[in-house]
Amino acid sequence: MGLRPTRRGWALGLGGVALGLLGVGLGAVDLVRIGTLVVLLVVGACVLVGMLDPGRGRHRLAVARDVQPNPVHAGEHARVDVRIKASDPAARVRLAGLRFSEQAATELSGGRPLRARVQRSPQQVTVSYQVDAARRGRWQLGPLVVTRGDPFGVARSSATLGDHAEVVVWPAVVPLPTASDVLVGEPDRVALGARTPSTDDASLRDYREGDDLRRVHWRSSARRGALMVRSDERAGMRPVSVLLDLPAKLTALEWTISLAASMALAMLDGGHPVRLVGGRAGTPSTFHQARTGPTARTALLDSTVDLEAPRTSDEAESHLLDAAHLLETTDAGGEIVLAVLGPLGASARAALAHVADDAQGWAVVRADGASPAHEREAQHTVHALRRAGWRACTVSPGEDIVGCWLRLLGSAR
Fold this sequence. Notes:
The chain is of the alpha/beta class. It has four domains: 2-51; 62-170, Sandwich (Immunoglobulin-like); 180-195 and 237-410, 3-Layer(aba) Sandwich (Rossmann fold), CATH 3.40.50; 197-236, no CATH class. Helix content is 37%, strand content 23%. The strands form five sheets. Strands 15-14-16-17-18 form a five-stranded parallel β-sheet, with helices on both faces. It has a four-stranded antiparallel β-sheet with strand order 1-10-9-5. It starts with a strand and ends with a helix.
């Protein structure tokens, strides 16, 4: 707790001391008494304010903070309700006369003071305000700062109440059409597990990560010593991996993650098992199943919150190579890979070329137009991916995400 006299308190205290000294010098008892009373007033006010510290003792106040919605998407608003409760009469005395202010990360407040609405009752005070989620990440609210003054305005105390709360901000996402008719070609629908009726309901294939365990054919699996699943229309949709190659520039980073998250959600809504791959070396990835509904969307978006820009180009390439290796070692056969990439070096192009041997690859390549050399590198990457069997196109960071998606789908024609 911070306890200090106000400017008025300092003025009165120093004035009282000066008046007392003057009375002693002049031998005026009344002046000494007045000076002593003024000093005692300041001291007593400080003691009174200190005794009513709302955050200590048996009668301390309880703080509950509710943020809705939480998580929230970047660019959206969230409402915060902070409730300060008094549990007994002594706590209600401490609650009366308090002034409140809330602390918030710059990414939630925009660096401006929060404008709050305060509702008071004898047992509870509710402080309500709105925050604007400016950027993806995990940002703090609180703790609550309370101040109290005495009736004469000569002393003031400040204290913090409660703990801080965390607001999770997901990337901004855009609804995208799920063009399964473009992404899944008719000749390989049955073989790769798309939702097309099969004439042979008993046809089997090897189990792949993301397949519904309810489709496992246990008798054949026991006979062959490996999990086998039925590949008819009910066996599920082709798994989708969304591959991320993160840039160092902040604006391009957030746009890249928004595009990747929008792609992933579109495929999830279309019934595909989806996972995010890349961004950080060694990050485990699991498929999120469409049948789990909102839980799958939440888990997928949660996996984007802590993604960070690489510190160097070598680190970015290392992450991408690790992700390509993960795709190869988890049996990507029949998988759809949607990639958001920057211009690639020779080793990264070679690694992604191998991915296209077993998976169907679709890639957008960032060309930010910063220099003609960067544009040429992006075009060279697109041509190299196409030669390896990918469908690929160039995009500019910051452009319309729906337009990028439709251009990528159009690259198959």
